Amino acid sequence: MSSITQISWTDQTDNIIRAKVGGWWCHKKSEGCANCFAEKLNQNSFFGGNKQPYSGQPPELVLDTEAIRKWGFQRKPKKHFVSSMTDVFGEWVPRFWQHEMLDGMFVAPNQIFQILTKRPEIMLSSMDEWLSCHGLDKLPLNIWPGTSIENRRTLEERSQFLSKIPALIRFWSVEPLLEDLGDITHYLNDVQLVIIGGESGPNSRPCHIEWLESIVQQCQQSKTPVFVKQLGANAKLEGQRFKTRDKKGGNIEEFPEYLQVREFPFDA
């Protein structure tokens, strides 16, 4: 199931895995999942959700093979964020589903597929298997593997697995940014895009603009494309609330000038 999206770093979302009864399912993994927007949507039947929490045992799931098949027939190039409502590399997802997804991407070279996971160790293993089956030594240019990072712990844990995936473009989604990541210079050698943003929605945890600025500066020094998605709903500057008219802090015109940066690798 594809849909137009308000996510500024992509063109559309393709939720190819859903619950058979409707809605979606995922399993919360780390601190960044605490206020999961996908779980909130899934709690609301108005948005097509099934009201199941993102915990416990998964319901019966289905793979939208027709949506995957259609990728190869799309003429207009687009960036596809694959499965914004779940993690396609969750441990509950059959490995052959992941490979079927990659097969569909392989035959759609004009489309860019942004695959984001909080489980890059599974992504690495599954993609290695797929590459081996196809006799390839690296992913095609149109397949962008990425991992979510929210703090120093997840930076350490996840970046090491992502860096081992043989891809031309790997990316981080540093959202919600929950603390200062400190010196990330040596990590940036292994990533070709860094997306950053504060948390939005009710009970948003604070994101200090100084944390965002530090990442932007380090990316610029290392010539790594950086995309500032949003300041978040609880942005702070010098310890004080930084108010924006946009409730997510996502209007780039309201950013401090030094954060008005939205870059992609290779002008994608």
From TrEMBL:
Organism: Nostoc favosum CHAB5714
Protein's recorded name: Phage Gp37/Gp68 family protein
InterPro entries: DUF5131
Pfam family, one: DUF5131
